[in-house]
Amino acid sequence: MSEFDALPAEERRAWLLAQLADLLRRADWQHFVCTPIVLPRPEFFPDRFTRTAAGVVRLIRRLFRYADLELGAEVELYEGRPPTPEEPTLIGASQHHEGAAGLFMGIEGEVAHFGADLTLLDDAGGITATLAHEVAHAFRSHHALCVDDRDEEEELTDLTAVFLGFGVLSANAALRHRSQQVFDGTFRSSWSVQRIGYLTPQELCFALAAQVKVREAGREVVLACLETNQASYFRAALRWLERERPALASELGLPPRERWPPPDSVATLTRALGDTHDELEQEEPPALPDKPSNAGRPVFRVWRRSRTDLAALAVPMGLVGLLACIGVALIHPGWIVAVIVVMILVVRLLGRRRRPCCSEPECRALLTREATTCPGCGGAIAGDIDHAEQRLAAAEALVRRTKG
């Protein structure tokens, strides 16, 4: 992929940097450089998620904490057609087209009102990125940052999501390739592309790269969490910014680094929320039934050394070795060395023993050689790989072979 394809157009690069500088002037610039970049990892979202209004509220409240918004939250679930705000007192409601996956319906008093499509609740990445965008709407409304032009406001909301630390979530959701295999006597592969957001993936990665560039930290961890295409966009943007905008922090109007406060603590931001909305969950049934997260999608066997088995055998092996040493000492003391050598060889052989597990990081279920479906996540087992990091390349190679 050339740098031309990986970067936004020149005029869009200028627009993004100009709007980012304006946002830093109008909002709290410290948030841009001090708040953690939120990653799609369990440690950033420690709350139990359920496919209910209460589960969505919990997720919004966690995003509120990252955005430093001290507001309450209420959610209305819908299917297909977003609800229309009935209260004329709601402030800052965003306009959304029919079929929108989520929406911010405005602020009443100290409570922000949202909507979420039921069909999105089974997609962890999609619901999180969608609500991050809507929380950015609430942030702009709460701080009087909104503009009148609807399309421009939506793009600025995506940029605000990056400002708030949601850049990785937004960039990954901006372009998602999903493949699915169906067995009908032969394997057929279907390929779909889903987009969430208004800025292009290149534009979101460019804004995210600007944030990492001024911080001078976080490059590797961000790259590790980006989808394959987005990672290439991010690298190209960083290279361009380092070459063309070496003094980016001062160009954006940021003060010298010695005046920056210390980074916010992830541990503090991920502490318990307090009210868990258990009462609401008892009254409200799950919106969607549970189902395997990778049903129909290809997964792979990863062969790992079985350290657990070795640990479990450590005590009986030690006892056997001790008894063997005592026994041979009574017969011929010189054989003790041979017993020790044999025990060392046994330990090494057990240490090399490998067992297959699912390649998906969230699953890791143990598999058998004969299994065709992962019992943990429901994925279709498409082959064997040596390391979990190879799963994306293996999936792409599988798609190419299927198409060929």
**Secondary-structure class:** alpha/beta
- Give the amount of beta strand, in percent: 5-15%
- Find the count of extended strands (DSSP E, 2+ residues): 8
Radius of gyration, in Å, reads: 26 Å
Ranges with pLDDT <50 over ≥5 residues?
A: 87-95, 177-195, 276-291, 306-311
Average pLDDT figure: 78
How far apart the termini lie comes to: 22 Å
Instruction: Report the helical percentage.
Output: 40-55%
Number of helices: 15
Give me the strand/helix succession.
HHHHEEEHHEEHHHHHHEHHEEH
Which strand order spans the largest sheet, edge to edge or round the barrel? 1-3-2
Largest sheet: 3 strands, mixed
* Structural domain count: 2
Overall geometry? elongated
Question: What would you say this structure looks like, in words?
Answer:
- Keywords: Membrane, Transmembrane, Transmembrane helix.
- It comes from Nannocystis bainbridge.
- This is Peptidase MA superfamily protein.
- By secondary structure, the chain is α/β, with parallel strands linked by helices.
- It folds into 2 domains: 3-283, no CATH class; 298-403, no CATH class.
- It is 48% helix and 14% strand.
- It contains 15 helices and 8 strands.
- The strands form 3 sheets. The chain has a 3-stranded mixed β-sheet with strand order 1-3-2, with helices on one face. Strands 7-6-8 form a 3-stranded mixed β-sheet. The protein has a two-stranded antiparallel sheet with strand order 4-5.
- A hairpin with a 2-residue loop joins β2 (102-108) and β3.
- α2 crosses α6 and α2 (10-26) packs across α7.
- Residues 87-95, 177-195, 276-291 and 306-311 have low confidence and may be disordered.
